[in-house]
Amino acid sequence: MKKIVYTIVFLSLGVGIFHSCSEDFLDKPAYGALSDEVLADEKGIEALLIGAYAALDGQDVVNGGTVALGGGNGWEATPSNWIYGDITGGDAHKGSDGGDQPPINSIATFSADPSNGFFNTKWKALYEGVTRANAVLRLLNQAENISEQSKANIAGQARFLRGHYYFELKKMFNMVPWIDENSENTNVPNDTDIWPNIEEDFKFAYENLPSTQDDVGRANRWAAGAYLGKTYLYQDKFPLAKEIFTEVINSGVTSNGLSYGLVDNFNHNFNAEFENNEESVFAIQMVANDGTNTIGNSNQALMLAYPYNSPFRCCGFYQPTQDLVNSYRTDEANGLPYLDNYNNNPVKNDMGILSDEPFTPDTQSLDPRLDWTVGRRDIPYHDWGYHPGYDWVREQSSGGPYAPKKHIYWQYHADTYSDQSAWAPGNAINVNVIRFADVLLMAAEAEAKTGNLNTALDYVNLIRGRMADNSQHWLKDYFDPENPLDGFTQDYAANYNIERYPEGYFTSEEQAMEVIMYERRIELAMEGHRFFDLVRWGVAQEVLNNFIDYEGQITTDVRGGDFNSNDVYFPIPQRQIDLSTTADGPVLQQNPGY
Amino acid sequence: MKIPLFIVVMLLFPVTIFAQEDEILLTGVVLDADSGMPVPSANVIEKGTSNGVLTNFDGEFTIEVPADATLVFSYIGYATTEIQVDGRTEIEVSLEPEAAALQEIVVVGYGSQRKSDLTGAVSVVDMESMGRQPSPQVTEQLQGQASGVTVTSSGQPGEPPQVRIRGINTFGDSSPLYVVDGVPTQDINYLNPNDIANMQVLKDAGSASIYGARAANGVIIITTKKGSGDLKVNYNGYYGSQMVPKGNVYDILSPQEHADLRWAAMENTNPGEPITDRQYGSGAQPTLPYYILPGGASQGEVDESSYFVDPFYTESGAVNGFNQIIRANQQGTNWFQEIFSDAPIMNHDISLSQGGEKGNFLFSLNYMDQDGTLKNTYFDRYTARVNSQFDISDNFRIGENLAYSLSEGNRVAVTGENPINHAYRSQPIIPVYDIAGNFAGTQAPSLGNSQNAVAILDRNQNNFSRTSRIFGNIFAELDFLENFTARTSFGGSYSNTNGQVFAYPTYENAENTTYNQLTENAFTGYNWTWSNTLQYQNNFNDLHDITVLVGTEAYHNQYEEVSALTQGFYSFDPDYVNLSTGSGTQTNSGFYTEDALFSVFGRVDYTFNERYLLGATLRRDATSRFTNPRHGWFPAASAGWRISEEAFMDEVHWIDELKVRGGYGVMGNQNNVDPANAFTTYGSNRVSSYYDINGSNNNIIEGFQRSRIGNPNASWEKNINANIGVDVNLFKSKLQISADYYRKDVVDLLYNPELTGTAGVSTVPYVNIAEMKNSGLDLSATAFFDFTSDLKMNTTLTLTTYENEIVNIADGVSYFDQEARRFNGSSIVRNAVGNSVGQFHGYNIIGFWNSQEEVDAANQEAQNVLNNPDAEYQSDIGVGRFRYEDINGDGVITSDDRTFLGNPNPEFSGGLNLEFTYKNWDFSTFLYGVYGNDIWNQVKWWHDFYSSFNGAKSNTALYDSWTPNNQNASAPIQETGGSFSTANVPNSYFVEDGSYLRVRNIQLGYSLPTNILDNVGLDRLRLYVQGANLFTITNYSGVDPELTGTATAFGIDEGAYPTPKQIIFGVNLTF
What is the pTM of this model? Predict the structure, then answer.
C-alpha cells in the first residue's frame, strides 16, 4: 500500500512539472534599462538631449579607468583638440618623455598612419555624439503632446550639437559619412561633402533656437549663428560669414542673457569661477567633485597635461613650443608683434638649467597674454609659486622647458574647482568651443576678405585693446614667492607691452590677413584651433615645415617631421575602413596620401 | 548507487534454473589479492539467482546456497570472480584489483553505464592520482589527469584555473559545464577535493549532448562521496612550504650598470652631446648619487632633519608640503625578492561515514589554508559537507548532498597592471624605504614612474574578498513496475561574496593618488535546477539490453551586485573605516540580472548481445536569453562494436577488450550571450550621459544614452561534433589504451562584431555569425606491471592535442585584434580566419641594420620601387635597429608586412603518472608537459629596451644589445626613444617557445603494517613526504611558462605569478 502511495505522489509530481513550466518562466526583460517607447515623451526626450550634450567631452569611465566614449584612452577623444589642433599646429609639444604615448609622436611629425588608434578613438566618440543627437530627433518625430515651441527648441539644440560633432569630423577627416535621424543604414560611403548638411543644421538651429535658455549650458540662437558663420568661413563663403557675424556681434547674447563682449580679465576665460561670462558663446560645461568620485566630467581628456612632479602630479604633456612663446615678443617701441620674424629675437628659456641653478627670465618686451598662456621658469604659475623649470618637466630635451596654463586651476579654489579622485587631476574649467574673441577674429577675416579693411582692423583692435586697456589684469609678481597664496603685488611679472594697431594699419587684404592670422594665433593659442586654421588658410605646409626646422634645433621630438600637402587631413581610421568592408569591398574610402 | 549496480550485475548473468537440493550455510571472507586487506561491501551472489549478500566491513559474509552453487563475487575496481562452492562451508576469496575493469560503472548524463557499454568519449579521472596535487582547487588538480582536458593555472592561491575541453570552442567563455551530484554549475572552486568520489569528463556529443545548450565546452560530472560499511573516520592532513626562486630572477642590472646603460643610450641617441642627469651628474662617466631624493645629492649635502612626510595624510594638497629624503640603494634592491617569499600551505580534512541497509551518510569538514608567495596574498577555505540517503522502503529512497563553504582570500590581478609588474619595472637604486622608514619610490626624479610594489602590497593587506556558498540538492528515487525508476532532484546554490578595497593616498611615487577611498561590494548569486527523470531498463531474451530515459529540467538563475564607495576618511585605521565614516561623496551602484532554461530530454541505450552498442540522445532547450526562436534541438547518436566479444576473437587471449565506437551530434552554447542581448535599451550613466547643463561646476543632470543595441534573432552556438574512438585492454587488462579522434565544427558562433563608428558606441549585440573548427586526438594509456609480488608499478599517460582554426568571423571581417598593451594602436593578438585563436601578429625581425650603407641601400631600393625620392624602406630605419622582413616582397615595409609570429596553442600537452609500491612503501610521480606553444614575453619590452619607459633594465640591454662591435646581439641598439624599428610595434623579438616539462609532483609514502595498526586500533596510517613543482625544464626565459589569459588572448607574459615549488609532509589516517 505504501508503495502505491509513494508511486502516486511521485508520478503526480512528475506530471505537474511538465505543466508548471510555462513560457512565463522564460520571459525575462532587460533589467535596469528602458526601451525607447518609455522615453518618447517630452521628459524622456529632454533626458536624451542631456545625453547628447554629455557626449561633448567624449569621456567615459569604465571600472575606474579613463576611457573615451566607445573605447580608447580618454585623451585620444580630447574635446579641446590639444593633440589634433595644438600639437599638430606647432603651438605645443607632446611633452612628457619621448617614449610615452608614442602615437602622438607620429601625429606631431605628420607620419601617422591610418592604424594609429588615436584617430579611431576620436572618430568613434564624435559619431557617438551624432548618434545621440539623432536619437533625440528620431524620438521627437514620434512623440506627441509636445508644444511646437518646445519641439523647435529641442530640435534646434539637437541639430546644433549634431552640427558641432560633424564640424569636428569634417575639419579633421574631411570626407566623412553623413548619418542623420532618418538613416536606416549607418554604413554609408564618405563620398560627399557634408558642409551643406552642417550648414543646414546650424541654420535650422539659428532659426529655431531662442536667444536665451533656462540653462546656461544650452546652445542658443547666437551660438548657432556664430557656428554657422564659422561654417561659412571654413568654406570661404566670406559674404555670408560677414553677414551672420555682424548680426552675432551686434545682437548676440549668451544663453543667460548677457550681451556678447570681451571680459576685462583675459584669464577669466580660463577660470571656472568666472565661466559662462559674456565672452562665452558656446562652452563644454565641466564640473569637479560631481559625486561620481571620478574625473569623467572634469576635463578628463586633459589629465595628462599638467606639469610633472608638480602639485598636479601628472604627467607633463602638452608643453608650449618655443616658437609659440617667441610669437608673443612685442616691439618695445610700439607694442606690436614681429609678424614675420618673431623667431629672430627669441624669448629666453631655461633649457638644460637645473632648477637649483640660477636663471633670470627674459627681460624684453612681451605680449601680456604670454603669461596667461604659457608657464615658464620663475614666472608665477597662477598661485602655485614660480614655475621651477627643469624640476616640473619630464624631459626637456624632447618636450622643451614650458608648461601649459589655460586649463590650469588655481590653488586658492582648488578644493572647489579641481577634482583629485583619479591618478591625475580633473578640473571644472569649461572647454571654450567658441568664445567671443574667436567670433571677432573670424569676423575680421570675413571683413578683410570682403574688402572692409577698417572694420577688420576695428575687430582686431578690440582684441588687442582688451589687453592694452586692462593692465591691471596683466600677470603680477608675488608678494612672497614662498607663500604664493598671499597674493600679488602691483609689479608685473615680466616686461609687458601691447598696443593697438594704428588707425589705417590694414593696407591690403593680404597684409590684413597676415595680421589677423597672427593675432588669432596668440589670442587663441592652446585652445585647439591652430592646426585647423593653418589648413583652412592654406599655409599649413609652409608654416609647419618652418616650425619643424626652427623647433627641431631646440628639442628632439619634432626632428624628422615633414608636412606634405596630404597632411591637411588626418587619415580615415583604418579600423573604420575595415569595419565598413562588405562583400563588395570597403564602403569608406581613405583620404589621399595615406 | 548500490541498487542500480545490483541490477546491472544481475542482468549480466542470465537466469538459469538449477535443481536445488542441499542448502548449506557458507561463511567466507573476501580479500584484496594484492594487499590481503578485506574488501567490504563486495557483492556475493549465487549465480543465476537473485540470492545475494554484501560483505561486511571485515570482508566477511554469510550466505545460504546449494552445495553445488557457483558464487559470483564482484566489487568496483576488482575483476568479477566466480567460485564453485563444491560443498565447502568456509571459503576465502581473493579479488584481483582491476584499475579500469570493464565492469566499472561510469556516471554519464542523468545516469550511469558500464564502462564497457560506453559509446561516447568519456575520460574517467583517477581520483587518487589527482588528489595528490596539493591545491585547494579540483580544477588545478585535474591538470594532465584526463586526456582532452587542458588546464592552465597561475601560482596565485585561489586563482581559478582556465579549463578547456578539446580546445577553444568559442570567442567567449570556453569553460566546461560542471555537474555536481546532478546539479549543473559553472563554478566548482568551493568544492573540497577530498569530498569527490569520482569524476568523469564528457567530451563528445555522444556523451555530452544530453546537456544540450550548455554542453558545447564539454561537461565534467562529479559525484561526491557516500558512506558505506561500518562507521569510519578518515583524516588527511598536510603541511608544507612553498618556495620561490632565489636570486636575480628578472636578470636586472645593478644601479651602476643601469647608469652606464643610461649613458650609453644617451650617447647612442645624441652622439657627442654632453650628458647631464639629475641623478648621475654630468661628465664622461655617471656617478651614483648618495641621495636619489633630492635627486643626485651627495652625502652631507642634505639636511636630513628637514625630512617631513605624513604617510597617512588626508588633505589632497598636503603632499605638496612634504620633504621626503631617500638615500640611494647603491647595492641595488632586488624587488622580486622584496615581494615574494616562501609561504606555508596547510590542509586538514576529516570525514565520518557509515552505510547500511537503511541508508548511508557522510559528514566531512575541511580546512584549507594557502598563503601566497606574493606578499599579503592568500586563500583559505572551510568546507562542511553532509551527504545522506535514507532507504525508506526497498523501492523508495530519498537523500541529500549539501556542502557549505566559506572562503576568504586576497588576490592581485594576474593580468594587466599589478604589483608584480611594478616590481620588475622599479629601478634597483630605489630602496624600499626612505630615511625615516616610509616608502621610497619614484618621487625621486628621473627614475621612471613605477610604483613601490612593497607599498602596494602592504596597503593591500586589509583588503579581502569573502565568499560563502551553499550548494547541494535533495532527491528522491522510486522503483516501480519492475523496470522503472523515477528520480526527482532539486538543487542549486546560493552564494554571497563580500569584498572591500581601501585605497591609501600615496606620496612616494612620481604619479601619486592623493585621495583615500573605501570600496565595498557584494555579489549575490542564486540559482536552482529541478530535474526529473524516468528510466526504463530491461533485458529481452538475454540478447537485448535496453535503457530508456526521459526527463525534464528547469533552471533559474539570478545575480545581483551592490557596490558602494566613499572617500575622505579622517583615519585609515581598519577598525574605523567603513562606508559611513568617510566624509567624501558617497557613491553606490547596482546590477541585477536573471535568466532561465527549461528543457526536455531523452536517451536510449541499446546493447545487442553485449557486442553491438547504440546510443541516442535528444534534448530540447528553451532559454530566456533568446526570443526568436526560443527553442533549440540538440540530437546525438553513437554506436560501438565490442570486437573482442565476437567468436572469431575467442582465440586471441591477449586481447581482453577491443571496442571501436563513434558518435555524431550537436552540442549547444549559450554562455556568451548577455540575457539582455535581444533588447535595444536606453540607460543613464553618471559619467557618460549626465551633463552639467546648468553650468553649476559641481552638479550633473541626468541624461540618457542608448546603452545596447538588441538582436532578437540570436540563437545557440552549435557545436557539430564527430568522434571516433577505440578502447583496448590487453594482457589481462595490464595495458589499457583509449584513443579518440574528433572533429568539431562550431557554427552559428556568437560574435559581437564591432559596428562601424557611425552606429554609435552602444553595447553591440551578439549575432550568430562566426565559424570555427577544432580537431584533435586524445589518448590515454594505463599499464600495470608486477615486477615481483612486492614491487608493483602502474603508469598512466594522457595526451591531448587540438588544432583550432577560425573558419569565418563575420561578413567582410577577416580578423579581430586584441591586446594593445604598450603598442598603442597595434595589437599583439590577431584572431584571423584560417588561423588559430590567439595567434601573435606583427613584424618579423630578420636581423639588424649593421651599417649606414645597408640602410642607404635599402632606402635606395625602396625609392626606386616607389618612385619617390623621400621613401624609406622601413619607418624609423636606423643603424643598430631591427630589420623587418618584407613579407609581401614589395620592397618596402608597411602594415601589410605584418605576419603571424607564433601560436600560443600547444601542439600537445600530456601528463605522465608513475606509481610504485614496494611492500608498505609507495612512490609516485606526476609529470606534466606542454609542447609547441609560443609565449609573448612582454616583460622584455620593459627590460630589454632602454626606450621603453625609464625603469629597471636587463643584462641583455647592457651586454647583449647591438653596438658596432656586437652585431650578433639579441636586443637592438639602446636609445632614449622608442621607434617603429625597435619596440614601438609588435615584432618577433617578444615571441619565445613556451614548451615546458614540469615535475608536478613526487610523493613517497609509508603505510604502517597492519599488525602494528591493529594494536592501536587503527585501520590505516600512512605518512608521506611530497615535492610539488620541483623542476621545470623549459627554454622560456621568463619566470614561469604557465600563463593564463582570456578566451581569445593568452600566453602573454607581462609579469606572471610564478607557480611555487612546494615541500609537503602529510598523513592519511583511518580508524
Answer: 0.86
